[in-house]
Design a protein that fits this description.
Blueprint lengths: L2 H13 L4 E5 L5 H9 L5 E6 L2 H13 L7 E5 L2 H4 L8 E6 L6 H11 E10 L15 H15 L3 E6 L5 E6 L1
Parallel strand pairs: 1-2, 1-4, 2-3, 4-5
Antiparallel strand pairs: 5-7, 6-7
Helix pairs in contact: 1-2
Length: 174
């Protein structure tokens, strides 16, 4: 994750006064640290990743960054198996940095998870510049283009594609 993308995540979390954030794709914890810095001091980050090792690295990174253990809830598993178990309208922000082939499904789950006025953000929608190339593209790029069109055309969302990092697609739920 680029420093610019991290700064935007902090800003987004602060702008929605986030108390509950869901993160798809824990990774090594970099995005989670940025989100936690932007969240309310009593906020909790729920982070989902299929790799337990990723969550162990992130747990340590959060501790090293000075966050109390109760600020993050780690759920191991495949996002599309875990997300249906999370509370409807219980989240202020959903950050998606998982399997790009599943972003459209993450969008559907995010809309259910978000409260009105909540925000969803998708990392990596430029796919290293491939989403704007005119030539034949792999399935991942075609799905990212479909996601961008779906979000753009939705009457339920107010969206913007931010040119930070590898592209950050953001949308507020009306």
């Amino acid at each position: 994750m680029s420093p610019g993308t991290g700064a935007v995540l902090r800003l987004l979390a602060a702008s929605v006064d986030a108390k509950a954030v869901a993160e798809i794709g824990t990774g090594c914890g970099v995005s989670g640290i940025h989100l936690l810095h932007g969240m309310r001091p009593d906020g909790v980050l729920t982070t989902v990743d299929p790799e337990p090792d990723h969550q162990q690295y992130a747990r340590q990174a959060f501790r090293d960054a000075g966050f109390a253990a109760n600020r993050a809830r780690f759920i191991p598993g495949h996002a599309l198996d875990v997300l249906p178990r999370l509370a409807d309208a219980g989240y202020d922000l959903v950050f998606c940095d998982g399997d790009r082939l599943e972003y459209q499904d993450y969008l559907a789950e995010s809309l259910r998870l978000l409260r009105p006025g909540g925000l969803v953000a998708f990392e990596g929608v430029f796919a290293n510049g491939r989403t704007v190339d005119s030539g034949p593209q792999p399935t991942e790029v075609l799905r990212l283009r479909e996601l961008v069109r779906t979000v753009r055309d939705s009457q339920e969302l107010v969206s913007s594609l931010l040119p930070v990092g590898d592209g950050l697609l953001c949308a507020v739920k009306r």
